[in-house]
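Pipeline run #58 for the internal structure catalog. This entry was flagged by the ingest filter as a single-chain record with no existing model, so it goes straight to prediction. Upstream metadata was stripped on purpose; only the residue string is passed forward. Reviewer on rotation: M.T. Logging verbosity set to normal.
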Amino acid sequence: MALNSRNFSIIAHIDHGKSTIADRLLELTGTIPPSQMRKQVLDDMELEQERGITIKSHAITMKYTTDDGRHYILNLIDTPGHVDFAYEVSRSLAACEGVLLVVDATQGIEAQTLSNLYLALEHDLTIIPIINKIDLPSAQPEVVRNQIVELLGCEPEEVIAVSAKTGENCHAILETVVEMVPPPPLRAEDPLQILIFDSVFDSYRGVIAYVRVMAGTLRKGEIVRLFSNNRKFTIDEVGILLMVRKPCSELVAGDVGYVITGAKDVKDIKVGDTITHLHDGAMESLPGYREPKPMVFAGLYPVNTDDYELLRDSLAKLVLNDASLTYQPESSTALGFGFRCGFLGLLHMEIIQERLDREYRMDIITTVPNVEYRLKVAQKEWQIIDNPADFPRQAKVEEVEEPYIKASIITHTDYIGNLMKLSMERRGVYISTEYIDQQRVNLKYEFPLSEVVFDFYDRLKTVSRGYASLDYELTDYRRGKLVRLDILLNGDPIDALSMIVHQDRAFEWGNKLTIKLKELIPRQQFDVAVQAAIGSKVIARTNIKALRKNVTAKCYGGDITRKRKLLEKQKAGKKRMKQVGNVEVPQEAFLAMLRVER
């Protein structure tokens, strides 16, 4: 079996055609009947179909007969393309012996092309370079071919030019996979080692793990354990992954398939973990496992406070299919009861919001995204906070550290100046400039993560007219001059509008936010002071003028003192109203920070 099987993955930048190439391979191998064929067939979520992106990695087994009559089993593992899901990509690559490196003929090499390529090289995989979308009028296959040759050091004829949309030359991909990708090692007699590269939750069967058997043989009914948590399970079913799951008697070294353990919590079956036999199992786990770590944190609150229980149930159901989402209850004086959620990145956060809206009909307010900070309070140990409301008063804070990333920005040479200016505005630390060819350049910077998760990607696309692409990885924590910026309405802090900013930018931020909130908060019957403060020090202020009822309209004549008496009475009433009145803050105000130009 192993000699006639090939395990490979597809890696590319977003929208370079990974899923469309997968469609053509499934069509050419007859895995899917023409009547069932649709676009992005491996992307089974409605959101994936709409956006044209892969959110969850997928696997499928294909049977292929070569031109000279040899029969092969091809296991294809499609991977996510966004930087938020880099860990899932790395585990999928660990399950393979080869990869198809797909590059768009109109876009050329981009940031995540390089990032995923380096991951493949780390795993010592056979790389098959492919140029896609050669049918488009704006395609430049020869220019992109030269980029790939210079990057990989391969021969020009080794680069396969295809059109996944029309199917042109896609047959050559299958032939090259058979010839170039090595078969998996024959280790069926070794102690069992199985890599989990993905998992899903089934309402009836529990957690289903998608796996690659690295060594040994697994059969139904055997007792296994997991290395990360030492949990023990009895195997209910094993099988291979076609368009539907197909049970089989055993999985041997080199096979890709699924395992049903009966586990009811997706957090028990972790991506990257190793399965082995309870008795006479492997002594060591497979390398590369780590816990998924949230990078971005935000508060999710129901618009209608009565929907709190519904939001809690919705998040609990989402976590069943997405172990990387974390949440815990929190409360806000402005927004009521909600949850503090941790996400892998901004795209992950956006997907969760979309799914809450579509699948559970939840109307939610999302607070400004934040990152984790490490701080040392006077005479105490270091602590980690992800909510600005938990940031102590400035006088108590001895040191604050924020996470930094190493970013790779690939762009056209025309926009180098614009991007360097943007990087300086976002406290970027320049590392190097590498030219990919005469027109494309790779800028390397270090940034505080908080400067990137906000609106950096949108600004990057704006200043480069859509040409630049971004990839990044977390490096370390560094000391910074960070302060908590509070927004006060008539002297009362609105905790949901608090944020942690750099001290040098605090006045600018405070000024912009107060002006923005003045536009959004409706006028009251009394003056409202909108202030930005650091601790007890107010650094910016604006006033929302009171609505003035015309109390003198009923005076048609008489002495001026009659009007004056009515105005004095109104003035006294407004003063009393200001003391006891509450300011209603509309939902738009909580999104104001996302719309403020930085």
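catalog note: The chain is about 25% helix and 35% strand.
catalog note: The radius of gyration is 29 Å.
status: ready for reviewer M.T.
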